[in-house]
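**Paired protein data**
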Amino acid sequence: MKFRLIKEKNPVNDEYKVSFIIKAVASGLFIGYVPFASGTFGSLLGLLIFLIPGFSQFHVLAIALVICMIVGIYVSEVMQKRYGDDPPEVVIDEIAGLWATYLIGYLIFEFFFKAKTFDPTFYFSTKVLFGVVGFFIFRIFDIVKLQPAGYFDGLKNGYGIMMDDIAAALYAGILSPVITHFLYYRVLIRIIG
């Protein structure tokens, strides 16, 4: 198990230039340049996009994740040439990881909690609850780096940058629906009636 709470900034290679578009995409509209907890802020952007009406539908989320992965591998590779290995400026991996958490979570809901009334696709209160729980659980697993996330984190390329967050999403995607289900039926349903 690998554990990395804070990504250290690497020396910048001033000789290698990165286009404005690649910087904007890789850094989640420049959120990656926040001087602290850029991964957490990147995940927060992923949560806010998830909360947009219609985005949380399974097929929309799946297509967005595939596009994010393909683009993310490319832009991460380019950003490494300027900012070094697994740069904190790159947060597209956190966005993709959080969306993968939600996608896996939907499958868990579908297969194991099907008979229940909880549906984060249609009810905003349940979508927010699932989104927030998934956000925190994903951040924990992204920091802890259980295998195979630790293996992918050791790869020094765009594929490794993206895949370590997808590996963390596997764990978070299984655990977050269980916790969300418990919180919904034990706490939230009593509050919202």
Summary: The helical segments are 20-26, 38-50, 58-83, 92-112, 124-144, 149-154, 158-192. The radius of gyration is 17 Å.
